[in-house]
């Protein structure tokens, strides 16, 4: 895996990955697509929570971030991400062999959505 990463770094640099490209999108349409799969009776509660603050809006509309990120430069390295992958849920571990690794401390839901584009 490390060799794959080094090879891909030559194709897609960190600078490319760190450069934001503006995305032309219709946020209302994207939210509606997501909400079509939700329980209709709970949508008013969702909307009420989303209008509480900017933070609440962005936390409640991960589909917009997903849409934007899929249209940025990609490393094309497969990943699996947890829906609860925020900084407080990561930990560093050092087993006896002294190889450090990073791991999720909680695991609520794990999905692989590689290549899925709305």
User: What's the N-to-C terminus distance?
Assistant: 28 Å
Q: Please trace the helix and strand order, writing H or E for each element.
A: HHHHHHEEEE
- Class computed from helices, strands and strand pairing: alpha+beta
Q: Could you report the average pLDDT, rounded to the nearest whole number?
A: 79
Approximate strand percentage? 5-15%
* Shape descriptor: extended
The counted number of beta strands is 4
For the CA atoms, what is the radius of gyration? 18 Å
In terms of per-residue confidence, which ranges show pLDDT below 50 for 5 or more consecutive residues? 107-118
Labels describing this entry:
10% strand; two-stranded antiparallel sheet; 39% helix; alpha+beta; extended; 6 helices; 118 residues
Give the SSE map.
Blueprint: H1 2-11, H2 14-17, H3 27-35, H4 43-50, H5 54-60, H6 62-69, E1 81-82, E2 90-93, E3 101-104, E4 110-111
Concise overview:
This protein has 118 residues and is α+β, with helices and mostly antiparallel strands. The protein has helices spanning 2-11, 14-17, 27-35, 43-50, 54-60, 62-69, and strands at 81-82, 90-93, 101-104, 110-111.
How does this structure look, described?
- The chain is built from six helices and four strands, in the order H-H-H-H-H-H-E-E-E-E.
- The chain is of the alpha+beta class.
- Residues 107-118 have low confidence and may be disordered.
